[in-house]
Design brief:
The protein is 36% helix and 21% strand. Strands 1-2-4-3-5-6-7-8 form an 8-stranded mixed sheet, sandwiched between helices. α3 crosses α4. It is globular, with a radius of gyration of 16 Å. InterPro entries: AB_hydrolase_fold, Dienelactn_hydro, Dienelactone_hydrolase-like. One of its GO terms (molecular function) is hydrolase activity. This is Dienelactone hydrolase family protein.
Length: 232
């Protein structure tokens, strides 16, 4: 359903690829899928294809392009996991947000000037929250975003709806961090958090050992309803 296309950076000094999936009919809204640490792999492309089937033009930018373009790693392969950690540690996240902003610009144009939603997973969940604070997207969803408790000082800049999916047994986002997120965001009228009792990091992956079917279906249904409301 989709293919890769090039996007020019905001500064005009380079280009990076994004996987783009388009619906059969002309889209009036767009969704940006923000990758995990494993790159724009089969699972991320599958999520894009699903959103396209739902009627959205969908982009997944390759955020590791400055290090290594077109990374595709498998979360269930230990060697791939370690490679992914290394890529994440070297990523300039402020620069990644600017690449996401360039993707928003491209996606909005592809949707005829319509609204743009962003949904991210793991690293992408963190970047989705950062995007809510720093970009002009219209709605933001983060699945098991890491380190959001350290970004709470930016939340005053959030002016559009944000949805966060928090698995309570996330071994990368420990209970103290989850508590800080809940307490720190409790008074922010733009932000909604859902807990998923007993589920771990990666529960909504498209495939692989991390996926929990019931949890993924529940969270994905909430995300679909959220975008249907806020991107209309």
């Amino acid at each position: 359903m989709g293919d890769f296309t090039s996007i020019t950076t905001l500064d005009g000094d380079g280009q990076f690829d994004a996987y783009v999936a388009k619906p059969e009919e002309a889209a009036s809204a767009a969704i940006i899928v923000i990758q995990e640490i494993f790159g724009v792999n089969e699972g991320i492309r599958g999520k894009c294809d699903s959103w396209a089937k739902a009627g959205y033009v969908t982009y997944a930018p390759d955020l590791f392009w400055r290090q290594e373009p077109h990374v595709e790693l498998d979360a269930d392969v230990p060697e791939d996991f370690q490679t992914a950690i290394g890529l994440m540690q070297k990523l300039n996240q402020d620069q990644a947000i600017r690449d996401i902003e360039a993707t928003i610009k491209a996606a909005r144009a592809a949707a005829g000037g319509g609204k743009v939603g962003l949904v991210g997973y793991c690293l992408g969940g963190r970047l989705a929250f950062m995007s809510a604070c720093r970009t002009d997207g219209d709605a933001f969803v983060g699945y098991y975003g890491v380190g959001i408790d350290g970004l709470l000082g930016e939340q005053h800049a959030i002016g559009k709806p944000v949805l966060l999916h928090v698995p309570t047994a996330d071994h990368f986002v420990l209970p103290d961090a989850q508590k800080a997120m809940h307490q720190g965001l409790a008074d922010n009228r733009h932000v909604t958090l859902y807990d998923y009792e007993g589920l771990d990091h990666g529960f909504a992956a498209e495939m692989g050992q991390r996926r929990d079917d019931a949890g993924a279906e529940l969270a994905d249904g909430r995300t679909a309803d959220f975008f249907a409301e806020h991107l209309a």
